[in-house]
Amino acid sequence: MTFIQMKKYYFLFLAILAFISCNSDGIKLTTEAINSKSCKDCAKVSINLPKATGNFVADSINQHLNDYAIQVLNYTEEHTSESIKQEVENFVSEYQKMKKDFPDMAAVWEATIDGNVSYQTEDLISLQLDSYVYTGGAHGYGAVSYMNIDAKTGALLETKDLFTDFSAFKVLVEKKFRQIHNIPEKESINSTGFMFDNDVFELPQNIGYNEKGIVLIYNPYDIAAYAEGMIKIEIPFDDLQNNLIIK
């Protein structure tokens, strides 16, 4: 290898190193508030979500959050918004249309979305997202969601990609669930009133991280009646041993 070739590869190596460093260290997360205009007989929207800055990974994170908020607020699914602010305006407008058609309607629509960084390392950003939407009826609907994001690429991580043995993780969680809710190992998982499909234990869709370990959330109606509220399970990092790929 000639000196020129060695020099070429040396600078290529430095470029790759700089690229990796920029991806993992250049993300800054703050909070951005987006609220509807305050007025009499208007729908009320309050949004407080993380805002990422720094590089293309930050752009990806912001897009994920943008898509999430739009999905929560989208009442009719007859339109497609490109921004949270536009979807807030659509939510308020849909309420005004409903109020015009049904002037005696007493219910005032409201929506609240709050997000925070529940766990962050050089490899992972886990975001907890709490939402509540009321569009009439006996009560609104509150839910907790998680986003697990690759801190180097900005890609959303699938739950199965977090574990070396996903099946073993599921077995561990079911054991913990049965212990918490006093369901004997040989009894049906629905024997105490839960409503798992086909009487088979399943993990929730909402799985994230906090400083202690893995958090799993069943939202209202997922496996129980609304009155039971949110059902939460926490698995400490120590219990997962070497089963976590990203920590």
Give the strand tally: 8
Unreliable stretches, pLDDT < 50, 5 or more residues? 3-24
* Overall number of domains: 2
Structural class: alpha+beta
Major sheet summary line: 5 strands, mixed
Order of helices and strands: HEEHHEEEHEEEH
Give the mean pLDDT: 90
Principal-axes geometry comes out as: flat
Strand content: 25-35%
Task: Determine Rg (CA atoms, Å).
Answer: 23 Å
Q: Strands of the largest sheet, in order across it?
A: 1-2-3-4-5
CATH class term of the largest domain: Alpha Beta
Tell me the span between the first and last alpha carbons.
41 Å
Count helical runs: 5
- In CATH, the architecture of the largest domain is 2-Layer Sandwich
Helix percent reads: 25-40%
Report on the structure:
- By secondary structure, the protein is α+β, with helices and mostly antiparallel strands.
- It folds into two domains: about 25-150, Heat Shock Protein 90, CATH 3.30.565; about 160-205 and about 220-240, no CATH class.
- It is about 30% helix and about 25% strand.
- It has five helices and eight strands.
- The protein has helices at about 5-25, 55-75, 85-100, 165-180, 235-240, and strands at about 30-35, 45-55, 110-120, 125-135, 140-150, 205-210, 215-220, 230-235.
- The strands form two sheets. A five-stranded mixed beta sheet has the order 1-2-3-4-5, covered by helices on one side.
- α2 (about 55-75) packs parallel to α3.
- The longest helix is centred in the N-terminal third of the chain and has 23 residues, at about 5-25.
- The two termini are about 40 Å apart.
- The model is unreliable at about 5-25 (pLDDT under 50).
- Keywords: Signal.
- This is DUF3298 domain-containing protein.
